[in-house]
Amino acid sequence: MTDSATARDTGFFGHPRGLATLFFTEMWERFSYYGMRALLILFMTASLTNGGLGFDTATAGAIYGLYTSMVYMTTLPGGWIADRLIGQRRAVLYGGIIIATGHFSMAFPSVATFYLGLFLIVIGTGLLKGNISVIVGRLYAKDDIRRDAGFSIYYMGINLGAFIAPLVCGYLGQRVNWHMGFAAAGVGMALGVVQYVLGARYLGEAGLYPTPPESPQAGDRLRRSALVWGTAVLVLLAALGIAAYTGAIAVTARQIADAAGVMLLAIVVIFFGWLFASGNWTPDERKKLYVIGVLFLAAALFWSVFEQAGSTLNLFADRNTHNVVFGWSYPSSWFQSLNSLFLIIFAPVFAWLWLRLARTGQEPSSPAKFAMGLILVGAGFVILIWAARLAEQGVQVSPMWLVITYLLHTCGELCLSPVGLSAMTKLAPARIGGLMMGVWFLATSVGNFIGGRVSSLYESWPLPSLFGAVGTFAIVAGLLLFAFVKPMKRLMGEVN
Predict the structure, then answer these.
(1) For residues 481 and 374, is the Cβ–Cβ distance under 8 A?
(2) Which of 249, 303, 320, 463 is the most exposed place for a label (fewest CB within 10 A)?
């Protein structure tokens, strides 16, 4: 429920002052996430003598894919906990504290604290990531014309944090000490938590309370069930962690990743099986659900290619790229800032372009934009085939190869990511609108997992073949989606 006082507030560039609080909270959260992500696979594959973990790329890729997929998967239970038990405000606070704790855990040089840190960051991000966006929406009344602009400002905070993070954490991690880079990510999240607490008075009652239960008895039952199940899960995870650490059970990171992949597949199959088998939909709703299924698949394929930025492309930047400008050598992790920089530059251009085309009746439909996104992200990898051939000959290639790749990937993201969020809200039946937003994060989770497993092939496949296969797969998927644009538009009805 929107608080009337915050809805009338214009203290932050014409928007509620609480938007500034959430802007900087999310900026620092993304700073911590992308700062650590820029170092993650480089740290895992660095030799023990260079302070790394000495993992091969197959193991590192599996861990990377598992971690990045679970970060988005946990937004589903994180949203449920906030809605039913503690409210979005407390979920964001607790999530930020847990994230900072996870980064500081990784600042200690041991394998145990490394895995503990990843686990804590996954849990904390699940509590914070989706719920902070809910609070942003609740700063505005439903008919407030400032809402879309407010979200645009908020997303600028995301990109600002993601842009700065690799420059700071990447430099500290690669040039000073890996664990100092992880600690810097923790400092960023701690700063975000501090300013969130200090600025909470500007949020009014937005996200302060969970959804009221149907009755006091129902609320008591819900809390008891949550306590029992939550305790059981934590005890089980702790027991498994201790057993694995002490050697009582033999389990590898790749086995855990394989099990997580099976779980992800099962979740997707069960969910869409329930969705399509349910008889509660009108004929029009059922048609739109079919479109959602296709867009889910397209989004998962897109993210499986796009999210190799932190793995495959990060390794290529570190091992095969001439990272020197005007005689000065810069950290390879700095390439991770390019996507956010291009987003800041080109997001207004794409927003203007779609609006201009809409006014002339020529705006592409959502499926067509998805197809363009797939083709662009695939083209970014196809271009790298020539760079990979040079790298095979021992040449340190020009950084411009990666600059062009990230530019194409950013254009693909602008065709798909914001369009996908909008399409989900327009296509989903109103009574499951929140659930469908969770499905969007599920697509991102599946894509991240697949992308991590692809990156595990970095040392076992010739680079030109790997880049060519990834790029061709995405482009073919985009062309197939283009072929189905017209029938999908018929299923979508009045939705574009």
Answers:
(1) yes
(2) 249
